[in-house]
Amino acid sequence: MNIIYQTICLVxxxxxxxxxxxxxxxxxQQNSYFASRxxxxxxxxxTVLKTLPFVTLVALLIFGLKFGxxxxxxxxxxxxxxxxxxxxxxxxxxxxxxKKLVFTARxxxxxxxxxxxxxxxxVLGLVFTGTLKCIFLGAFYFLAFxxxxxxxxxxxxxxxxxxxxxxxxxxxxxxxxxxxxDLKVIGITxxxxxxxxxxxxxxxxxxxxNVLMTPExxxxxxxxxxxxxxxxxxxxxxxxxxxxxxxxxxxxxICDIVHPDSAIITSVGPQHLETFLNIENVLKTKFxxxxxxxxxxxxxxANGDNEHIAQQNGVILYGTGKNCEYRAENITGGRNGxxxxxxxxxxxxxxxxxxxxxxxxxxxxGAAALAYKLGVPLKNIAFAISRLSPVEHRLEMKSSVNGSLxxxxxxxxxxxxxxxxxNVLSSFEGMTKIIITxxxxxLGEKEFEYNKGLGAAAAKVCDKIIFVGENRxxxxxxxxxxxxxxxxxxxxxxxxxxxxEIYTKFADSNTVVLLExxxxxxxxx
Length: 525
Known about the structure:
Elements: H1 3-30, H2 35-45, H3 52-67, H4 69-73, H5 76-95, H6 105-127, H7 130-145, H8 147-157, H9 159-178, E1 184-189, H10 194-205, E2 211-213, H11 221-231, E3 238-242, H12 250-258, E4 262-265, H13 273-276, H14 279-286, H15 288-294, E5 300-303, E6 316-319, E7 326-334, E8 337-344, E9 347-353, H16 359-373, H17 378-386, E10 396-399, E11 405-409, H18 415-426, E12 432-437, H19 447-461, E13 464-468, H20 473-482, E14 490-493, H21 496-506, E15 511-516
Parallel strand pairs: 1-3, 1-4, 2-3, 4-5, 5-6, 6-7, 11-15, 12-13, 12-15, 13-14
Antiparallel strand pairs: 7-8, 8-9, 10-11
């Protein structure tokens, strides 16, 4: 086999490798670039069939080393074809995924590193002869057939580079903030409710101020930094910064970048227990925001309806209880939204919103209280509340197939919020009620218990139930059946696409479906 033919085969193999790495990087990205979480996904997704190309390669490599390079070189077209075939399969999986790979600068750097690594192995395999040729070409295809190894190697090899890049961006963001002495920074955190509260607060504050908020769920240090570097303007007066966390110290890390002047803590609950391990660590982490604001003598509002927050010091409480300085009273709600009185000391005003769920009463109250403290008049607050729109994928009402109604709560992933969503579904009296959900994740040893509870709650409200994920659905199904739910009306789908196919068979103009927690692919099994 001449050198040109070998080169063409290696190039085709490189295309397959690129496609295979795109799939692996997609899953690494969904696991927040954490090696531990990525390897856990690898274990759960492993099948014996995936090892067949690798075993075949090793056998032929040993054969080639024993009987000469010609034996191995003649196998190059076969291995390239298999690599390209596997790459196309991986590419199709990526395209059919719920959450596709986002080609960030980091992903591009990783792909460049991977391509250079394989190109180097390929060139060395073409240049050398004999045993060395077999070794380099064997390494080329060996790594092609075990792409997770390359992904992990790239992750660790580029770690110093990513650290330098991150530090550069962080320092640049700090310089931009330090040059704006007049800018007020508001931090918002909580196990749940922080994104909704962020949107509500930003809308109310815009009645008086020019406001920048972190978009969507940009609540990591680099998401916050990117917002500052790309969107902070000279006329911005208030920066509303959502802060997420999965480990102790995560909130402090963001606070050390933005140095918040005031804050809202929306909740403390069983979220990310897989990494936090217990509620005490969650509480400690969320209150890192309080500690940061205290250093500047700022105001911290916290949800007094939350049992873990109510007894904490250094915060002013909001909510629906009498212990709250800023509270909501005379609450009414249903499928058309909520209405209640805002009571701020001696002042009271009735407000109405199209937002669904009692939890939004808390979110509105906390946001309105901070806006009030920042000088927004009550009448402007009431007007802004009346104009609030649902946050995308958080109890968002949409039209669906066959004239049915969809309650899109795909970004809700906590026990309390999920139960509240089921409660909202129950308000649609006279309609056929259906839920589609894969359940909840990252709840550690409590995960089975909370998913069983969600299944039980759904059984009390729904006419039909569609769970997603054969293994994930076990506690959900157990909870539903224990409530006496008719198993003929309970379905288990392998994917959301299959779940929607099942739902379409029942959907009509008198049907409402709740889509609860649309998990990415790394959780579905």
